[in-house]
């Protein structure tokens, strides 16, 4: 399998954490692929017209896009039902957690793009809106932190862990641990797993 | 079930199309909820700290977010495996199609927000980037249009249909049907279904 990959994309990292958890990392050939919101990557468009990573190209040439779809595909390759509970309340809890971590990542990516614009093009309302949503989501995750510890590690944990690590990587100024001690404690257990240590983002 | 809903959100529409296809529409209480990227909805934040719709609140108070998660939950309520193939190549094809339609919707929402900004805050590079990605994705969908007709109607069809209808609703100036005759023909069959007719977006 060929994965359009970057060492700094938190969505790619989710896939690689899942691959390590599932014992599949060595079956993935990572191809360094740079994407920017302002500039489509012309080499990537034939595989993914949305010009987004991660994009997974299978041996038969078929393509999977969207990080959670790729993660579920990898889960199925490893036998299924490992990182994605197959049905019932456990499945909806895992997918709801994933949606919360992933949705906050979506906000953070937009926020970072906004911060990088020339000042006269930035929108103060957007900054304020992103800040409120980020703080409120962190409060919600703090309330869920004890339960994160108590439930089987899965796609929800991976999304939340990658999201918190991305806050450290690109939004260190926010000091997200302040007021979120249980979440900060849980994040240490995420970071200690071999799958996280093998996929740490680096600013090359 | 209570659904945070708007008549003009294409992501909400996906959920409502799925609900109609599954015969569950009358079990959903729609609560008109307005969200803007620049302004968190304070009434929505307790249910969804990301301030996004659709958000589904279940009878036991638990909350599902992310339109595709809500659609899969509804599918499970109706017995499962109806709009979401349970496993195998059919599942990955359906989820890949969903990701393409949904990913183009994500781009169109951002594009519309960009268009709505005061002119001095708009980014010409972003406009160009969104235009290229939209055109390339439509070309890909055109290549898949015959196969859309040939495969069982599911979540991929719903995402693509809602996306094309959103183009009609908010980007009529793009004339997306030009150069995409097979896709335009398929879209007519989407629009003719009762589930689409019952959920048509209206500019109130």
List keywords for this structure.
homodimer; 204 residues; alpha+beta; Glutaredoxin; Glutathione S-transferase Yfyf (Class Pi), Chain A, domain 2; four-stranded mixed beta sheet; 7 helices; 55% helix
Structure, explained:
- The structure is a homodimer of 204-residue chains.
- Chain A is globular.
- In chain A, strand 3 and strand 4 form a beta hairpin.
- The first copy, chain A, has 2 domains: 2-77, Glutaredoxin; 88-193, Up-down Bundle (Glutathione S-transferase Yfyf (Class Pi), Chain A, domain 2).
- Chain A contains 7 helices and 4 strands, in the order βαβββαααααα.
- In chain A, strands 2-1-3-4 form a 4-stranded mixed beta sheet, covered by helices on one side.
- The two termini of chain A are 25 Å apart.
- Chain A has 204 residues and is α+β, with helices and mostly antiparallel strands.
- Chain A has helices at residues 10-22, 67-77, 88-116, 124-150, 155-170, 181-192, 194-197; strands at 2-5, 29-32, 55-57, 63-65.
- At the A-B interface, strand 4, helix 2, helix 3 and helix 4 of A face strand 4, helix 2, helix 3 and helix 4 of B.
- Chains A, B: It comes from Plastoroseomonas hellenica.
């Amino acid at each position: 399998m060929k994965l359009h990959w970057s060492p700094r994309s938190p969505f790619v990292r989710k896939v690689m954490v899942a691959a390590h958890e599932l014992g599949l990392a060595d079956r993935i050939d990572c191809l360094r692929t740079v994407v920017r919101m302002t500039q489509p990557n012309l080499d990537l468009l034939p595989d993914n017209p949305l010009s987004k990573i991660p994009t997974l190209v299978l041996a038969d040439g078929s393509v999977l896009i969207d990080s959670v779809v790729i993660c579920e595909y990898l889960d199925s390759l490893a036998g299924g039902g490992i990182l994605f509970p197959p049905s019932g309340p456990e499945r909806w809890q895992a997918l709801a957690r994933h949606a919360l971590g992933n949705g906050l990542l979506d906000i953070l990516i937009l926020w970072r793009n906004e911060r990088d614009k020339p000042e006269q093009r930035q929108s103060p309302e957007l900054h304020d809106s992103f800040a409120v949503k980020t703080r409120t989501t962190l409060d919600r995750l703090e309330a869920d932190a004890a339960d994160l510890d108590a439930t089987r590690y899965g796609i929800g944990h991976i999304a939340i862990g990658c999201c918190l690590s991305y806050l450290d990587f690109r939004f260190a100024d926010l000091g997200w641990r302040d007021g979120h001690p249980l979440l900060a404690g849980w994040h240490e257990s995420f970071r200690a797993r071999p799958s996280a240590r093998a996929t740490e983002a680096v600013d090359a």
